[in-house]
Amino acid sequence: MSYELITMGRVGVDLYPAQIGVTLDRVEQFNRYLGGTATNVAVAAARYGHRSAVITKVGDDPFGTYVRRALEGFGVDPAFVGTHPELRTPIVFCEVHPPDHFPILFYRQPTAPDVTLSPEELPLDAISQTRIFWTTGTGLSVEPSRTATLAALDAARGTVIHDLDYRPSLWADPGEAGEWQREALKRATVAVGNVEECSVAVGGGSPEEMAQRIFELGVEVVIVKQGGEGVTAFVGDRRVHADPVVVDVVNGLGAGDAFGGALCHGLLEGWDWAETIPFANAAGAYVASQLACADAMPTEAEVRELMANA
Questions:
Q1: Closest among 46, 40, 36, 113 to 75, alpha carbons compared
Q2: Residues 13-62 pLDDT 10s
Q3: What topology does CATH give the domain 5-309?
Q4: Element (H or E) spanning 234, and its range?
């Protein structure tokens, strides 16, 4: 089977509070959802009807069974989901304090199965044949997944998107992040990141200045998310900007992954950047208005409706 999109990276089980504005020590109930950046992007693309798979790893436990079943339910092929015999499937807690405070507590110690992926476990033929291959910065945070991520990037022949996805708490030495992000970017077609993530990779400055430094690494398109200022795509000398879509924010986590899945949808459908970026921006806003991440990924009709009413 050939795929339109293969993502590689983090997976987990999100346990999000049923109570809004409550600290974790006072939460009385949690809701369970599928999560993890690379996983969410694959789910989002599948929601638009694309053949998607994710390369990741879970533990030999009931949560690992849940991940595979949830992926199948969302239409994502779990064929490349490995199992670590000893480590546990990660769980992630968060607090929900709208509109802009969503602290995360990762349970990934001593390490997580998805960062134990080695080059020998990669489906290189599938990676080389997929139309879009998506990697994340977290995969670079530790060995052996760092080497595996770079090997996978070297194998890709289609559009390669690298999501900078910088989580300082997941790096043993956050000071190494910039060096390895640049190594990944040298192998990428499209770079996606927020202002902080771009500055970690290539140094601070305006979005234009950071985009120029990323271009110098060989990337063809740079997408800089700017929070309340919207999002800007730099496509060569062309600049495509989308202003924020105003929604009642419930949980901002997962909005970036919805953006990513919608970005892949636009590329796979052959849309112009002037259509793709506003659409992806609206998809992110849609998920920000929901509690869940993977479970909340919208259809194209739902995104179009939000755009029409914005």
A1: 46
A2: 999 999 999 999 999 999 999 999 999 999 999 999 999 999 999 999 99
A3: UDP-N-acetylmuramoyl-L-alanine:D-glutamate ligase (3.40.1190)
A4: strand 231-235
